[in-house]
Specification:
It contains 14 helices and seven strands. By secondary structure, it is mostly helical. It folds into three domains: 44 residues; 128 residues, no CATH class; 170 residues, Orthogonal Bundle (Penicillin binding protein transpeptidase fold), CATH 1.10.3810. It starts with a helix and ends in a 23-residue tail after the last strand.
C-alpha cells in the first residue's frame, strides 16, 4: 500500500507540473496573440481608406500655339506624362518583370515565398534588411507615400494595401499605374517622361537596349542615371538584359547585340524654353486664376494665340539689330549696362497676342517681362 500511494503522489506531481506548463504556455500564447493584434491594429490605423486607393499623381501641363502645336511643357517640380500600357513596348514591360518581380502575373500582390525567405534572413539579423517587394507593393509604397523606413509596421501596411489593390484592379491596370509612377531622375516620373529625358523619343519607339537602360535606372535614379554615371548605367542595363535572357524573354544573341550598342543619349534638356516671355505671361495669367498645384501638376492643356513663326522672326530681328551694336557682355563675360528691348505683335482685329519679347535675355522662369505691366491683365 505505501508503495502504491507513493506512485500516485508522483503521478499527481507530474500532472500538476504539466498543468502549470500548459497554463504558462497558454498565457504566453495569449500575450503573443495580443501583441500581434495590437501590432496589426496599429498598422491598419495608418492605412488610407479603400475609397482613397485612387492615386492622384502630378501630371505635366502643356502650352500650345495658335496652330495647336506644342510650345513647351510646364512640369513644375515633377515631369510626368501618363501613357497607356498599350503604348509601352513589350520588351520594356518584360524588362521590369525580369528585374523587379518575375512572378508578377501569378501572385496575389505579395510573393509568399519571397516574404518567408526575407523574413527568415531578417530575423537572423534582428532587423529589416530585405523586403521581397513585388511590383504591386512598390506601386503602393510610391503612390501612397509609405516611404522607405525599414520597420515591421510599414511592411505590414504595404502588404495589406497591395492585397487590396490586387482585388480592386487588374494586373494590367496595376502595371500601367506602376510604370507611370516610377521616378527616373531629373524630375522625370513615368516611362514616357523617361523616354523623352534620356532618348528624346516617345516610349513606344524605344529599342530593346534603351528599354533595358530605363528599367535599370528605376532601381535608384540618383546612382544609375547615365547623366550621373554612364558606366554604372551600362552595367545595370546589361544586368537587365541578362535577367531577360534568364527568364526566356529574349535570346542570348539578342542580349549580346543589345549590349554591343553604345550609349546614345538625348542630353539633359536646356532649362530655357521657346517664347519664354510669352510662356511666362501665360503662366502668370493661369496663376492669377488657379493655384500652383493645378498649373504645374494638373495636366492642363493650354491653347494660346501665339504664332511661333512670327515669334522667331521677332526674336531674330532683335538679336540681329541689337547684339552687334549694343552687346550685353564684354570680352571677359561681364554684363554691360545696355538699353533693353520689348515688343508685342497683336492681331489688330481681335487683340490676340501673336508674338512677344519682354527683354533681350531670359534667365529664369517668371522674371521681369518688359512687354506687359506687372501681373499682366491682357487677354491672350
Amino acid at each position: 500500500m505505501p508503495r502504491r500511494r507513493s506512485r500516485n503522489a508522483k503521478n499527481d506531481r507530474r500532472r500538476r507540473f504539466l498543468r502549470y506548463i500548459a497554463l504558462g504556455a497558454a498565457a504566453v500564447a495569449v500575450v503573443v496573440l495580443g501583441l500581434m493584434v495590437g501590432f496589426v491594429a496599429a498598422a491598419v490605423r495608418g492605412l488610407p481608406a479603400l475609397s482613397g486607393l485612387e492615386p492622384d499623381p502630378a501630371l505635366t501641363s502643356f502650352i500650345y500655339d495658335c496652330n495647336g502645336e506644342l510650345v513647351t511643357e510646364v512640369a513644375g517640380w515633377e515631369n510626368r506624362i501618363p501613357v497607356d500600357l498599350s503604348e509601352v513596348p513589350e520588351h520594356l514591360v518584360d524588362a521590369f518583370i525580369a528585374m523587379e518581380d518575375v512572378r508578377f502575373w501569378h501572385h496575389p500582390g505579395i510573393d509568399i515565398g519571397g516574404i518567408l525567405r526575407a523574413a527568415y534572413r531578417n530575423i537572423m539579423k534582428a532587423s529589416i534588411r530585405e523586403g521581397a517587394s513585388t511590383i504591386t507593393q512598390q506601386f503602393v509604397r510610391n503612390a501612397f507615400g509609405l516611404g522607405f523606413e525599414r520597420t515591421w509596421t510599414r511592411k505590414l501596411q504595404e502588404i495589406i494595401l497591395a492585397l487590396q489593390i490586387e482585388r480592386k484592379y487588374t494586373k494590367e491596370e496595376i502595371l500601367e499605374m506602376y510604370l507611370n509612377q516610377i521616378y527616373f531622375g531629373h524630375s522625370a516620373y513615368g516611362v514616357q517622361a523617361a523616354a523623352h529625358l534620356y532618348f528624346g523619343k516617345d516610349v513606344s519607339e524605344l529599342t530593346l537596349e534603351e528599354s533595358a537602360l530605363i528599367c535599370g535606372i528605376a532601381a535608384n535614379a540618383n546612382i544609375y542615371s547615365p547623366y550621373v554615371n554612364a558606366d554604372r548605367a551600362l552595367a545595370r542595363r546589361n544586368l537587365c538584359l541578362d535577367q531577360m535572357t534568364r527568364y526566356g524573354m529574349i535570346t542570348p544573341e539578342e542580349a549580346e547585340r543589345a549590349k554591343a550598342v553604345p550609349l546614345q543619349l538625348a542630353g539633359i534638356p536646356d532649362e530655357t524654353y521657346p517664347a519664354p516671355h510669352f510662356v511666362d505671361y501665360v503662366l502668370e495669367y493661369l496663376l492669377d486664376r488657379y493655384d500652383a498645384e493645378t498649373v504645374y501638376r494638373g495636366g492642363l492643356k493650354v491653347y494660346t494665340t501665339i504664332d511661333m513663326t512670327l515669334q522667331k522672326h521677332l526674336e531674330d530681328a532683335m538679336h540681329e539689330i541689337l547684339d552687334p551694336a549694343l552687346p550685353l557682355y564684354d570680352e571677359n563675360g561681364e554684363r554691360l549696362e545696355q538699353p533693353e528691348f520689348a515688343a508685342v505683335f497683336m492681331d489688330p482685329e481681335t487683340g490676340a497676342i501673336r508674338a512677344m519679347v519682354g527683354g533681350r535675355e531670359h534667365k529664369k522662369k517668371l522674371e521681369l517681362n518688359r512687354a506687359v505691366p506687372p501681373r499682366g491683365t491682357w487677354e491672350g
